[in-house]
Specification:
By secondary structure, the chain is mainly α. Helix content is 74%, strand content 0%. Helix 2 runs antiparallel to helix 3 (57-79) and helix 2 packs parallel to helix 4 (94-111).
Amino acid sequence: MFFNTRCLLAAFTLSAVCFAQNNTNPQIMQIVSSLDQSMHINIPNIVTLQASHKANDQTVGAEFDDLVTVWRTAAEDLSNTPVSSGSETVDPTNDEIGVFFSECYSLIAAGLSGLTTATVPSFPDLVAELDTQTAAAAIAYNTTLPGGLALVHIMMLDAQQFLVAEGFTKTLAALGF
């Protein structure tokens, strides 16, 4: 009896340690938080350029260059993060991360909605380059946090219309639209 109890306790302790090591949510949250911070810089910059009638290929293009870089970095970092067992009870939870990740896509959808080829002739080309990276980040996110895109998809139901209008075809597919 004593031996069986010790074996069970050892097995429980070992499985708890293994489970804790597989919850990479803190690493994922760091990546998503960094991306979210960048979105809160670049997207308002683009909106300001639009509002001040200074949006053009050069000014908006520079912001897009930054966006492409941060999304590429996020996709690479997520791809290099071990798959998470996730958690709905230990912070950061899967849902908390999903809300932040959704916000990044919402900011793009709404923040770019005022741009047109009349003011930014290269807008379709800029979107095409960004679309590749935002789609790659979505795929990497869902691989690293299995099922994580389910909440992102739900949260993007309304905003996805802007992604459609802007031409984010790869991102829409990655998000399940």
